[in-house]
Amino acid sequence: MGTPIDTTAIGGCRPEAAICTRAVTRDFQAGQQTITVLHGIDLDIRAGELTFLVGESGSGKTTLISIMCGILWPTQGEVKVFGTDIYELSDSDLVEFRLQNIGFIFQQYNLIPSIDAANNAAVPLIAQGMDRLEARERAVAMLEKLNIGDQADKLPRQLSGGQQQRVAIARALVHEPRLVVCDEPTAALDASSGRRVMDLLRDVAVAEDRACIIVTHDNRIFDLADRILVLEDGRITHDGKDMPEGH
Amino acid sequence: MLWIAIRMLTGDAQKFYGLVFGIAFSTLLITQQLTIFVNLIERGASGVYNVSSADVWVMDPVSRTTDVAYAMPSTALDKVRSVPGVEWAVPHLRAQASVRTKDGDLEGVAVIGVDDATLIGLPKSMVEGSIEVLSQPDSVIIDDVGTTRMFPGQSPIGERLELNDQRAVIRGIADAIPSFTSTVVLYTKYSQALNFVPGTRNRLSFVLVGAEDPLQAKALSERIEDETGLKAQTRDEFAQDGIDFIIENTGIPLNFGITVALGFIVGVAIVGLTFSLFIRDNIKQFGALKAIGVTNAKIRRMVAVQAGLVGLVGYGLGVVGTVFFIWGFSSNPTFKGFYIPWQIPLISLVAVFLILALTGWLALRNVLKTEPASVFR
Prior knowledge:
Chain A has 247 residues and is of the alpha/beta class. Chain A is built from seven helices and ten strands. Chain A has helices at 61-68, 91-101, 117-121, 123-128, 132-145, 161-173, 191-205, and strands at residues 17-30, 33-46, 50-54, 76-81, 84-85, 102-105, 179-183, 211-216, 227-232, 235-240.
C-alpha cells in the first residue's frame, strides 16, 4: 500500500527521472470564472515502470497527461521529459520532440480509416520523413511482434476492436519512443481482452530506457501496475504500488 | 504524409465524388457559359469575319457596325479609290428586306450586295454551288444557317423567292458565320441588290478596301479618313466595334455574368460543405496526427494536396464536359463555328483555384484550431 506523498518535500528534478514536473498548475477559463484543474503537481516518473495515473472523471488526469506529453501548456510550472524542459522549446521544436520521443495510444484509437493497418502503424515514421515502403516494412515487423502481422493489409474497419487496439499500440511504438502514453487502453475491451492488451503493453512498451504512463480508471487492471498515482481534485493524493483502501 | 492525405480523401468515396462533382459542375458551368457568351458576342462581328479579304472598311461617320450603317453616296467609292495606298476598293451593300417563300411564309432577311466584277464581299467558301452562279439572272446565294431556317431538311437550290416584289432564285449555299440574330442572309451582286432593296437616294453601305501593304492597314485607314472625311476602320477595329455594340446594347453580358457567378457560388457551396464535412469527419485523425508530431505546415500541405487533387480531377472533367458539349452541338446552326478560346479554361482554372482556396482555408481553420490535447477528451 502506498501513502499520500508530501509534494512540497520534492526539490529539483532527479537526473534519473524520465518525466519530472515541478509546481505544475493549470487553469481554465469558464466565462468570468477561473477554474484551477491542477494544483502545483510535483512528480517524478521513472523509466522501466508501468505507471498508472488513476482518478475520477474531472480529477485532472487528462490535463496532467496532456501537459506531461507536451500537447497542453501548463499555466505555471516546469515539465522535463528525459531532461528536456519541453515548454522552453519553440513550438516547432516541441512538435519535433513529440514526434521523436513520444508514442500515443488513444482511447478511440484514431486510426486513419482509409489506409491499412501497416500504413496506420507507419504514420510516425512517415511523419519523420522515412520512405513509405521502408516505414511500412518496419510497421509490419512491429505488427508481427504484436501477433497481428497477418492483418497488416486490412483496413481498420475490417479489424476487431482488439486488433485495432494493437495497431494503435504498434503506431505508438514503431518509432521507438522513450515515453509511451496510453489513454484508457482497456476501456472498450472486456476483462480478458483488457488483460491481454495490458500484458502486451508490459511486454513491448516497458523497457529500461522507456517510461510508460497509462491513464485509466479500470480497476480490473490495477494489479498490473508497477506504480499507481491517484489524482483527486487536481492533486496527487496517493503514490504507491497498490491502490489505497477505499478506492 | 501527402500520400496519406490523398488516401484519406479518396478513401471516403462519397465525399470525394461529391467534391469532384462540385468542382466539375462549377467548371462546366463557368467554361460552357463563358464559351457560349464569347462566341455569341463574336457574332456581332460576323459580317466582318465573313469578308476576310477586306483590310479596311469605309463607311459614313455615323455608322457603327455592319448592321447599324448609314448609306453613303456612290461617289464615296471614287474618293476612296483615289487615296494612295489603296490597292482596290469595292462597293458593299447591306440592307434588310422581307422575303416570301413559295409556301407563303414571310421572313426577314439581310441582303448583301457584293462587287459585280470581283464578287468581293462573299464568304470565303461555299457549301453548295459556286460563286459564279451570281452571274445568272436574279441569282442569290443563301447562307447555310438560312437554309436550315427556311428550308429545313430540303435543298434550297432552285427555290424561288419573292424578295420585295422581285423574283430571286437561290443558286448556291454559302458557308458563313451566322449573325448575332441568326438572320437569313442572301448574297447577290451589288447591281442586283439595288433592285431588291427599296430605293433611297444613297445606297452604298460600305466601301471595302484592300491595302497595298496589309500590314499598314491602320495607317491607310487614317489616311482615308483624312482625305475623304469618311470613317475608316481596319478589319480588327470594325470587328471589335461589332462585338462592343452587342455588349453595350444587350443584356447578354449581365445574364451570362449571373450564370457564371452562380456557377462559382454553387461550386463554393457544394465544395465548401463537402470539404468541411470531410474535415469534420476526420478531425480526430488530424488531431491525432498533430499530437503525434505532424506540424501545422505539414497539415496545411496535406489539405492543399487534397484540394489540389479534387481541383485537378474536377476541373479536367468540367473542361472535357464543355468540349463534349460544344462538339455535340456543333451540327446545330445555333452553335455553328463555336470554339473554346484558350483564355476561358484559364479563367475557369482561376475560379476553381479560388473556390478551393476559399473552401480549403475555411476547412483548414478547423484543423489548425484543433488542439492536439483534444484527442484525449
